[in-house]
């Protein structure tokens, strides 16, 4: 896996082909079934005070022991939503539940003001209400990196980050900005593991407080890697950050995907050790500790389209069925071309990932399906019109 700073979170054939492999009726039903359409309400205009999230159906019904409410009425409502999805899905009235990752080139790239304004408008048009903005990586000397290449200290580029946040928010008060911070649990073979260091936890917590209190971010996104199952240090780190930034700021966590899930629908990958995955208990602990989890649906090592679609669907089904809190679940989908053993760019595409999301939603019932909050797009370049069309047609208009 690539070890570059600010690389794809969680990392150390076109969607058209799917329709030749999967029953087209199943795909049609999956696209028509209501998903995040169960959310109501609008984002507050004063986006700088508190977390200002759209009111979600999951917030009204979760924990899941409250989900079993009005089964007969739910069937009637679901039927109505199904018909409405077919004839009357107004994209412009959907909540701003989706997200996008913005790498270091956005913050340090001196983007033209007019171009940024146009980009913000494009986000709102596609119901994207939050941006995960790369800020810094924690280096070997426990100092935070900064600058376009990460070669300088963060404090030297603090003003650049602050101006970017201010400029971005000036374009719209409907967007939430999260500081994406990258933390390596192992720096190299000599230094070994470091996430058990309480001083390190305090460093990360203090940095998170600076980002939300002084630089204007609405929350932090933790990209801790590699992250293995049952890591109590990770849970303690989340709690340390919560104590530092308070309950009104959001903590989001980039979630490592399962590479060897125990699912008969998925192919075995001999090159990966068995049980390379998080346990159900650890997944639940992360869901309880964080306000938001972002499932990283790439770097899967999958080389066949249907296998990748089923792999994405497995994660949707698994995390929703483990959810016992109001934690939001976003599904991060890929749109980048760099090839590796883990990432086949012909298989792990935006279109194919969205087909996997649709398949995962199809496996849920009408009560739990709305618990998927939205989609987070990870791209290494600005999306072109064809990319936006895929997102609109396969997600917003589904």
What can you see in these coordinates?
The protein is α/β, with parallel strands linked by helices and 398 residues long. It has one domain: Alpha-Beta Barrel (TIM Barrel). The protein has 12 helices and 10 strands. Helix 11 runs parallel beside helix 12. The longest helix is centred in the middle third of the chain and has 18 residues, at 154-171.
Mean model confidence by pLDDT: 82
Q: Tell me the Rg in angstroms.
A: 20 Å
Which geometry do the CA atoms define? globular
CATH topology: TIM Barrel
Q: Report helical residue fraction.
A: 25-40%
Overall tally of structural domains: 1
Main sheet overview: 8 strands, parallel, barrel
Kindly state the number of beta strands: 10
Structural class: alpha/beta
The first-level CATH class name: Alpha Beta
Architecture in CATH? Alpha-Beta Barrel
Can you list the strand order of the major beta sheet?
1-2-5-6-7-8-9-10
The helix/strand series, from N terminus to C terminus, equals HHHEHHEEEHEHEHEHEHEHEH
Number of helices: 12
What is the CATH homology-level superfamily? Glycosidases
Unreliable sequence segments: 1-5, 12-88
Instruction: Give the end-to-end Cα distance, rounded to a whole number of Å.
Output: 33 Å
Name the beta content range. Answer: 15-25%
């Amino acid at each position: 896996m690539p070890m570059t700073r600010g690389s794809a979170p969680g990392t150390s054939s076109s969607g058209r082909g799917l329709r030749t492999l999967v029953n087209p009726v199943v795909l049609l039903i999956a696209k028509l079934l209501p998903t995040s359409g169960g959310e109501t309400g609008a984002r507050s205009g004063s986006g700088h005070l508190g977390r200002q999230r759209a009111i979600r159906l999951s917030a009204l019904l979760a924990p899941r022991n409250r989900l079993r409410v009005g089964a007969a009425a739910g069937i009637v409502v679901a039927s109505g939503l199904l018909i409405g999805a077919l004839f009357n899905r107004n994209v412009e009235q959907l909540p701003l539940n989706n997200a996008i990752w913005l790498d270091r080139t956005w913050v340090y790239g001196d983007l033209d003001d007019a171009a940024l304004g146009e980009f913000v408008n494009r986000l709102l048009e596609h119901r994207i209400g939050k941006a995960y903005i790369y800020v810094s990586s924690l280096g070997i000397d426990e100092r935070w990196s900064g600058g376009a290449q990460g070669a300088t200290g963060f404090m030297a580029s603090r003003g650049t980050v602050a101006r970017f946040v201010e400029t971005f928010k000036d374009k719209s008060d409907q967007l939430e900005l999260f500081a994406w911070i990258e933390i390596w649990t192992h720096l190299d073979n000599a230094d070994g593991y470091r996430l058990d260091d309480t001083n390190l936890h305090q460093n990360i917590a203090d940095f998170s407080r600076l980002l939300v209190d002084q630089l204007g971010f609405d929350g932090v996104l933790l990209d801790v890697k590699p992250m293995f199952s049952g890591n109590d240090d990770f849970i303690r780190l989340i709690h340390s950050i919560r104590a530092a930034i308070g309950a009104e700021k959001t903590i989001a966590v980039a979630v490592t995907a399962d590479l060897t899930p125990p699912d008969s629908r998925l192919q075995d990958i001999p090159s990966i050790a068995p049980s390379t995955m998080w346990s159900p208990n650890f997944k639940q602990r992360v869901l309880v500790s964080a306000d938001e989890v972002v499932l990283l649906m790439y770097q899967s090592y999958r080389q066949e389209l249907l296998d990748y679609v089923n792999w994405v669907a497995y994660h949707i089904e698994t995390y929703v069925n483990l959810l016992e809190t109001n934690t939001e679940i976003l599904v991060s989908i890929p749109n980048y071309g760099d090839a590796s053993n883990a990432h086949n760019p012909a298989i792990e595409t935006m279109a194919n990932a969205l087909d996997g999301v649709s398949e995962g939603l199809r496996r849920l019932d009408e009560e739990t399906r709305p618990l998927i909050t939205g989609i987070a797009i990870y791209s290494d370049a600005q999306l072109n019109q064809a990319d936006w069309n895929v997102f609109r047609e396969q997600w917003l208009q589904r």
